[in-house]
Amino acid sequence: MADIVRAWFGVQSMDAFHAALAVFLAALWTAIATGFGAIPFAFVKNMSARAMGLANALAAGLMLGASFGLVAEGARHGIWQTVGGAATGLVFILLTQRYLAHHDVSFGDIQGASARKMLLIVVVMTVHSFAEGVAVGVSFGGGASLASAITIAIAVHNIPEGLAISAVLRPRGASLLACAGWSIFSSLPQPLMAVPAYLFVERFERALPFGVGFAAGAMVYVVLVELLPEAYEAEGERQGAEPAWSPMSAIAATVTLSLVGMLLFQRALA
Amino acid sequence: MLMVDIAGAQPLVAALAGALGAAALGPLLMRALPFERKAFLGTMGAIASGVMLGAAYLIMATSMESWPGITPLAAVITVPIIFVAHRSMRRRPPLEMVSRRMALLHGIPEGLALGTALAAQVTLGPWVGLTIALHNLAEGALFDARAEVPGTAQSLARASYLAFIDKLPQAVFALGAWLLVQVLPVATAPLFASAFAGLVYLVIAELLLEAYERIGRVGVALTVMAAGAVVAALGGR
Question: Do B202 and A252 touch (CB under 8 A)?
Answer without folding.
Answer: yes
